[in-house]
User: What shape does this take?
Amino acid sequence: MTSEARAMPPAQRTLPAMLQRQAERFGGRPLLRMAGREWAHGDAAQAAAVRAGALAKAGVVRGDRIAVMCGNRIEFLEAFLGAGWMGASVVPINTASMGPQIEYFLANSEAKLLVIEASFLERLATADLGRTALCEVWVVGAVGPVAWQAPVGVHVVPYPQGAEAVPPAPVQPGDPLAILYTSGTTGPAKGVICPHAQYFWWGVNSAEVLGVGQDDVLCTTLPLFHINALNTFAQAALTGAEVVFESRFSASGFWPSMRANGATVVYLLGAMVPILLAQPEGEGERNHRVRIGLGPGVPAAAGQAFRARTSVALLEGYGSTETNFAIATAPDSPRGGVMGWLRQGFDARVADEDDAELPPGEAGELLLRADEPYAFASGYFNMPEKTVEAWRNLWFHTGDRVVRDTDGAFRFIDRIKDAIRRRGENISSFEVEQVLLSHPGVASCAVYPVRSELAEDEVMAALVMREGVHVDPAELARFCESRLPYFAVPRYIDLLPDLPRTENGKVQKFKLRERGVGAQTWDVRPARS
Assistant: This one.
C-alpha cells in the first residue's frame, strides 16, 4: 500500500489530496477513535472542509497561521485538517507551556486565531497578548459563555460546532502546513516550517518502516502537538489503517489500553520503556495483538528486555522535526544498538566542523538531505539567519554527533548542541536560564543536562546568587514551576560562588556537566518526598 503512495505524483503530495484519496479508496473503513469520537476514512475530508468553513467565517485566509493548544481530542485534529484544507498553517502549542512561552509562540508565528482548551485559559493571564497578532480565540470545552476577559480587539467564543463546508484550496506541496516549535539551544525556540509534502513523506516513510497495512490498528499515547502523533494520523490516512489516540501515557494503564484498543502498532519514546519495565511483570504484557513498535532513543538493553517480556520488537530510527524518517532499523536488522541504516530517498554524511566527510568509524556531525522536493522542512519561521546556518552547504545540520560503521549503520554518540531532552521533550537551556535570571536573587546561572535513571536527561542548574542574598533552592524551583513547562523545571540545583568561564567570559558548561550531581546539590525529589 505504501508503495502506491510513494508513486503519487508530486502535485498530489498535499493534505487535501491525501484526504480526498483516502475518502475514495477507503471510504467506510474505520479511521479514528479518540476521546469517545469515531471517524471513518471518508469522514476526514468532510471534517476538514467544515472546519475550514468555520475558519474562513472567522476571517482566516490562505497563508494565515492558527495556533492550537489542547490535548488529544477531536478539535485538535479538526483544526489541523481544516487549516491544511484551506491553505492556512497550524501552530501546535505544547500543553505544558505557560504564559511567557504561549506569548512567544503567538507573537513569533503571527497567529491570527487561537484554539485553546478551557482548562488552559488561565495561563493567558501572564501572556501579553497585545504583542501578538491574535484576533480571535476559540475555547474548547467551554460550558456556557466564556468568562475569561480578553484584551481589547480579541474576540473570544466557544469552539464553533458547525459551518458550511468549503472546497479545498489549490495548495502546493511546498506550501506551509504547520509551524512546529522546537527548542532553541542558544536562543528562543525556533518555528520549523513544515510543508505539505514533508507531512506526506513522514507518513509514507514511517508506514514503510513499520509495515503498516489496512488491517493494522495504530495506537499512540503521545500528544498531537508533536510530529510523532501527527505523523501517526498520516500513516493511517495513506494506508487505510485505523488510529487510536489516547489522552496520555500511563505506565499501569498502557497494556490494558493496548488490549482494549486492539492495537497492533505502538509508539514509544526512550524514557517510556524503562518506566514500563519498572512495572511488575504480568500476563497482560503478553496477552495482546501488538506486533511491532517504534521506539527511538530506547537504550539497547531496555529494548532487548522489553522484547523478552512483551514479544514486541521496537524499531530504532532517526528523524527530527526539520527532516524526515531518514535512518531506521528493521525487524530483521543484522544487529541492534544502532540508530539504523539510511533509507531510500535520503543522503547522509558524517562531517567535521568544515562539513568535510569523515571516514567510517570517526565521529562527527550528522548532515542530512532528501532526494524528493519539500521532504524536509523549509526553514525557521521569521529566522532567516538560523535557517541559513542550519541548511548551509545544501545539507541540514542536525547538531548530533554520530559514527557511521563500516556496514553503513549509524550510531548516536551525543548532542553537539546545548540542548536537553527530558521525558521525550526538547528543552532549551537558554529558556530555563532566562526564567532563573528573572529571579531578583540570581546573579548568573547555567543550565545543562545530567543523566537520569530513565536513559534520558535531567535538568540541572548552577546558580550564583547576588551578594548578600540567600534563597532556598525549593523557592527557586517553585518560582520556575509557575513560569516553565513542568518538564523544564530543574530537578537539581547547585548554589556556587562562581561559574567556570573562558578568558572571554563564556560559561564552560562541560566542566559543570563533568562535575555533575554532588553532595551539596539540591534534589527536588527528596525535597518533595
DSSP finds 15 helices and 28 strands in the chain. The chain has a mean pLDDT of 91. The longest strand covers residues 442-451.
